[in-house]
Design brief:
499 residues, mainly alpha, Neurolysin, domain 3, 2 domains, 3-stranded mixed beta sheet, 21 helices, binds zinc ion
């Protein structure tokens, strides 16, 4: 039982945290899109201070004790108990870190992002390496404070995807490798799909025009709740269900890059937009786990965005915008080319089939980094060797190799595996969706909202109310089963390449 006074205290506390969160999200969006780099040090110091204030609130000892009572209080409703539990768990994980160390680490992360960007532009890993070294040191020390008997990397995996660990991912990735590597090898032995027309010159301004005037309206991503900007590494941030920002990056030699990244990021934004508004401002108003979030973005990108039905509705307008580049191309040729499996250097540009191998590479490297088998000085060489071994490609520079992803500069480790796991969640969810509604007809007739409404009802509206395995169960009526994913890929690519 908690008193009225305690309830008020709790409500005020939740509101204050959401205010800090909103400020920090907006500062991050600004930093990664339009903020002039020279103002970086000034901003980074103040952003770190704000993070410290939020940290103090989140780990407030009095509130920590109240949360511990609330999470098990049978007089409270299920929503409140769940929110109290998640807040308590979050505090329990960070309360052991000294505040000054936390603030210093936040400032380091802000500086590391700037350094990563400079290193990438200069194509020089040595600019970023000292920052990465310090980030890893901090991570190891912070996780050590928790005093858990689990390995550091297991704890990181669990933080990103509750319930996951190395043993479970090892089993998943063993199947991924066993089933997909032979398939990729069979494909490399047959003649490739011609996708050269996707790599003609596509001026960024025209791509942007198509996206704003055609693609975003089709996806129902409207200015009353969303806004798209440009950045180096596309991401989505939100403050509440009615303010979900996305970003994209236009490549003038690859028209599908920003198209699919836009569909992906709008998938994340739509998830947040569709969460039950009664959770607004609370810890429940968030996709429940990293993999569940990626499942929704990758479902939109791959299971909707790469279908013929999707492009039957959208290709005519794209062709009209680019008559010279796409004039003689049919919608079937466009879709085939957009699905071609071509082992490459860049994860974000990868096709559906080779994509999980990019993840396997990062997963294995992170494991070795945190289990002490390799250090930051070995990273570039290990990276390049793994690309040769798993994907058969030579990495020509750091920019398209070790420096391609933003994640490590943000201190995000154990996140990459959730992309592959999310793809597997997506396969199972879309399987059920196709039993319930005519997905192709909805896409073809520009009724993308019908698919989004199905996802809203079956996945999105829960937010953090249940954990990921429970949401899969509720949405599909089954336990999670990654065979849907691997079966789909085998079926799709055997058909596409007529193997
Ligand atoms: Zn994503």
């Amino acid at each position: 039982m908690i008193s009225q006074e305690e309830q008020k205290k709790y409500n005020d506390w939740v509101f204050q945290i959401s205010a800090y969160q909103m400020a920090l999200a907006l500062i991050s969006i600004d930093k990664m899109t339009v903020a002039p780099p020279a103002g970086g040090p000034y901003r980074d110091a103040r952003t770190a201070w704000l993070s410290g204030e939020k940290f103090s609130l989140e780990t407030d000892p009095e509130m920590f004790r109240l949360l511990a009572r609330m999470k098990d209080d049978p007089d409270l409703d299920g929503d409140t108990r769940r929110a109290a539990f998640l807040n308590w768990q979050k505090a329990a994980r960070t309360v052991c870190i000294p505040k000054d160390e936390f603030v210093a680490s936040e400032e380091l992360l802000n500086q590391a992002y700037d350094a990563w960007l400079r290193a990438k532009m200069a194509d020089d890993y040595s600019i970023f390496r000292p920052y990465l070294e310090k980030i890893i040191e901090n991570k190891k020390r912070f996780y050590g404070f928790r005093g858990s008997s689990a390995s550091i990397y297991d704890q990181m995996l669990d933080d990103n995807e509750p319930g996951m660990n190395e043993a479970k991912y090892d089993a998943f990735f063993a199947d991924v490798k066993a089933r997909l590597i032979p398939l990729i090898q069979r494909i490399s032995a047959v003649s490739p799909i011609d996708d050269s027309f996707l790599h003609r010159f596509y001026p960024a301004a025209q791509q942007k025009k198509f996206t704003n005037e055609h693609l975003l309206p089709y996806l129902r991503y409207t200015p009353d709740w969303g806004y798209q900007n440009e950045t180096e590494h596309p991401f989505t941030y939100w403050t509440c269900e009615d303010d979900c920002r996305t970003t994209t990056k236009y490549l003038e030699n690859s028209v599908t890059s920003s198209l699919f990244s836009t569909i992906h990021e709008v998938g994340h934004a739509t998830f947040e937009h569709n969460i039950d508004p009664k959770y607004d401002g609370t810890i429940l108003a968030e996709g429940v786990s990293a993999a569940m979030h990626e499942s929704q973005s990758r479902l939109c990108e791959n299971y909707l965005g790469r279908t013929t039905a999707f492009w039957e509705a959208n290709f005519p307008a794209l062709q009209k915008e680019f008559p010279e580049q796409l004039g003689g191309v049919t919608v079937q040729q466009f879709v085939r080319a957009s699905n071609a499996a071509v082992p490459g250097l860049l994860r974000t540009e990868a096709d559906e089939l080779t994509y999980p191998l990019h993840i396997v590479i990062r997963y294995e490297i992170e494991k070795d980094l945190f289990d002490g088998r390799i250090g930051t000085e070995d990273l570039e060489q290990v990276w390049n060797e793994k690309y040769r071994e798993y994907l058969g490609v030579e990495v020509p520079n750091s920019r398209d190799g070790i420096l391609q992803d933003v994640h490590w500069s943000e201190g995000s480790f154990g996140y990459f595996p959730t992309y592959a796991l999310g793809s597997a969640y997506a396969a199972q969810i879309v399987h059920k969706m196709r039993q319930d509604i005519d997905v192709d007809e909805a896409l073809r007739s520009s009724r993308y909202d019908i698919c989004m409404n199905w996802l809203k009802e079956n996945v999105h509206h829960y937010g953090c109310r249940y954990d990921a395995p429970e949401i899969i169960r509720r949405a599909t009526g089954e336990e999670f089963n990654w065979n849907y994913y691997l079966d789909d890929l085998e079926e799709k690519y055997t058909r596409l390449y007529q193997l």
